[in-house]
Specification:
It contains four helices and no strands. The chain is mainly alpha-helical. The chain has one domain (2-115).
């Protein structure tokens, strides 16, 4: 189930960021670049969770850790420095636009990785 949610979030973030960058990048380049970064992180995390082996296990830890730091950092900045984000990114307000899934998912991913070494 965790991998399915990662895959769905990867598709959603990719679609959103591609549209935003093509159609309106000049309106909020920071937010739209962060959405694209989030999409790449979700894609790599999804692949790493599926792929076997120690290398991919480490990649999963790295991407999921980066994801958690990203959503906490961007979420906090979007609250305390809202002018920095003219438009929302995937991680703005701790992923509120995605029902806070970006905030909860890395924690669940880390718990899953810890159990499935």
């Amino acid at each position: 189930m965790l991998i399915i949610v990662y895959g769905i979030l990867a598709l959603a973030a990719t679609g959103r960021s591609v549209y935003e960058i093509i159609a309106k990048f000049d309106q909020a380049p920071v937010a739209y670049t962060l959405s694209a970064l989030a999409a790449v992180v979700y894609i790599v995390a999804t692949v790493a969770l599926i792929a076997p082996g120690r290398f991919w296990y480490r990649v999963a830890w790295a991407t999921i850790s980066f994801e958690l730091v990203g959503v906490l950092t961007v979420g906090t900045l979007s609250i305390f420095l809202p002018d920095l984000f003219a438009k929302a990114s995937v991680w703005s307000w701790y992923g509120m636009g995605y029902l806070f899934i970006p905030l909860v998912l890395p924690v669940l991913g880390m718990l899953w990785l810890r159990r499935n070494r």
